[in-house]
Amino acid sequence: MNKLTDNGKYKTKLDLLHKSDSEELEKLLSAEDFPWYLSPIIAGPNKQSNNIQLSHSFYKNDSYNSIYKAVIDLFKDKINWVSLIRVKANLNFNTDKIIEHEMHTDFKNKKITTGVYYVNTNNGYTRFENGTIISSEKNKFIEFDSQQLHGGSTCTDKDYRIVINFNYIQW
């Protein structure tokens, strides 16, 4: 795997997948027959309004939840994990103005790393507690400590924003 660029808070890798794999993945997740499910953006008691997104769970509770295991296989040699915890795709629809989702942590366990893969390019982003903004650029991957506060957003320039969230234990 090509090295991730490390800024101390998060690591970034551009062009994580081969271009053809990235294109096929975007086509798959954008297809009208891909199974998306309604889910809250942020679970728990402090949910904000507009807390609904579409999601697809590929992996959780030590097993595959999806017939699309090949999606995870695309990343197997690209992300340095020893054990997967959860993998899910999120789709947020276009809004008239960008809506930032509530800041959250993925897990409270120091051993778990969070990765975000950006499926399509749009003007949405991931924001960290310190104000750093990571733009949604197709085929970009970021990883960071799962305890780090962060939040996503909607987009205004495309029909939707799709990301794949990975939670894993590294080597």
What is the end-to-end distance? 14 Å
Compute the number of helices.
2
Unreliable residue runs = none
**What oligomeric assembly is this protein in?**
single chain
Element order: H for helix, E for strand: EEHEEEHEEEEEEE
CATH class membership? Mainly Beta
Give the name of the CATH superfamily: q2cbj1_9rhob like domain
- The total beta strand count reads 12
User: Major sheet: size, sense and barrel closure?
Assistant: 9 strands, antiparallel
Q: What does the radius of gyration come to? A: 15 Å
Mean pLDDT: 91
Residues in helix, % = 10-25%
Q: Tell me the strand percentage band.
A: 35-45%
CATH architecture: Sandwich
Class computed from helices, strands and strand pairing: mainly beta
As for the CATH topology, it is Jelly Rolls
Number of domains: 1
What overall geometry do the principal axes of the alpha carbons give? globular
Architecture overview:
With 171 residues, this protein is mainly beta. It has a single domain (5-43, 52-170), classed as Sandwich (Jelly Rolls). Helix content is 11%, strand content 39%. The protein is built from two helices and twelve strands. It has helices spanning 19-30, 69-75, and strands spanning 5-6, 11-13, 37-40, 52-60, 63-64, 81-93, 112-118, 125-128, 133-135, 140-145, 150-151, 160-170. Strands 1, 2, 3, 4, 5, 6, 7, 10 and 12 form a nine-stranded antiparallel β-sheet that branches. It has a three-stranded antiparallel β-sheet with strand order 9-8-11, with no helix packed on it. The chain is globular, with a radius of gyration of 15 Å. The two termini are 14 Å apart. The relative contact order is 0.24.
